[in-house]
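Hi C.,

You asked whether I'd gotten around to modeling the 168-residue construct. I have! Everything is below, sequence then structure, no commentary in between.
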Amino acid sequence: MITTIGAAFAAKRISVGKETLTLGIWDTAGSERYEAMSRIYYRSAKAAIVCYDLTDDTSFERAKFWVDELNSHEEGCFVYLCGTKFDLIQEGIKSRCVDLNVVQNFADDIGARKYVDTSSKSGQNIEELFQAIAEDYQGNKGKPKANNGMTVSAYEGRDEKKRTCCSH
């Protein structure tokens, strides 16, 4: 629940079957101020979680922008659409500003791998979302094309080695 200014990085280890994957997670915060720099963080990404605030319709419009950005620059990237602040809706503090059918239609139109409502405060659906990403990656590695035509390549196994910014 810490506010991101600029970009933040975290690594998360997730078990899929008998393997453990390490997800490198960049939180770019989606701010217009850092828009040009964001491409640095999602370059060669295999998956992107595009988030929007369930209680703010302008946030959903920004999410559409980010999906377009990803599709323009990272055609091999799986997109996961994520509504945030679900706890505020559940507690009756705020209302959902974007109709769920509109969101689901958008997710279908862009070929999103998954759409989920989440809460950073309660943790609702956060683990499930990351698990789905790891399982999708694991299920598609080594295949030339995923079901939606996006290329996925293996990266796991290298996480134990030190890497510089330009090494592969």
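If it helps when you're writing up: The chain is about 35% helix and 20% strand.

Thanks,
B.
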